[in-house]
C-alpha cells in the first residue's frame, strides 16, 4: 500500500513483564484441556466446581446426568391438556422449549470441559431419558403416538 507509513504501526520490541530476582513473573493460569482426559480434577460449568474434592466431582457427574435425563423428559412429555386454548398452549410450549434448550446447552457446556467422565454421564443420561420417555417400551398403545408437546430437537 503506497503512502502508508509502516513505522506508525510498529509496536517496538516486545518486553517480558517485570521481573523479581532475575526471573520473569508470569501469572499462574490453569491449563484448559482441549482433548478428552480422565480425572476428578476438572471444572464443570462453574469456576472451581467441583474442584479437587472427589465427592464434589461425583456430585457434578450426577448433576450432568440428571440434566440430560431432564432434557429428554422435556422432549417427550405431555403437559398441555387436550382442549386448552391455542394461545395458552402456545405460551406453555414456548416456555417448555426455552427451558429444554437452556438445559441442553448446559449439558453441552459441561461436556465442553473435555472430561471423559462428564461426557459418558451426559450420553448415559440422554440414553436413559430416551429409553424411559421416548422409546416404545413404556407406551401403552399405538394411539399414543404423539408423545410430546414439543417438536423434536433437530440438527
From TrEMBL:
<feature type="region of interest" description="Disordered">
    <location>
        <begin position="1"/>
        <end position="22"/>
    </location>
</feature>
<keyword id="KW-0472">Membrane</keyword>
<feature type="compositionally biased region" description="Basic and acidic residues">
    <location>
        <begin position="1"/>
        <end position="11"/>
    </location>
</feature>
<dbReference type="GO" id="GO:0005375">
    <property type="term" value="F:copper ion transmembrane transporter activity"/>
</dbReference>
<comment type="similarity">
    <text>Belongs to the copper transporter (Ctr) (TC 1.A.56) family. SLC31A subfamily.</text>
</comment>
<keyword id="KW-0406">Ion transport</keyword>
<keyword id="KW-0812">Transmembrane</keyword>
<dbReference type="InterPro" id="IPR007274">
    <property type="entry name" value="Cop_transporter"/>
</dbReference>
<dbReference type="GO" id="GO:0005886">
    <property type="term" value="C:plasma membrane"/>
</dbReference>
<protein>
    <recommendedName>
        <fullName>Copper transport protein</fullName>
    </recommendedName>
</protein>
<keyword id="KW-0187">Copper transport</keyword>
<keyword id="KW-1133">Transmembrane helix</keyword>
<keyword id="KW-0813">Transport</keyword>
<feature type="transmembrane region" description="Helical">
    <location>
        <begin position="55"/>
        <end position="75"/>
    </location>
</feature>
<dbReference type="Pfam" id="PF04145">
    <property type="entry name" value="Ctr"/>
</dbReference>
<keyword id="KW-0186">Copper</keyword>
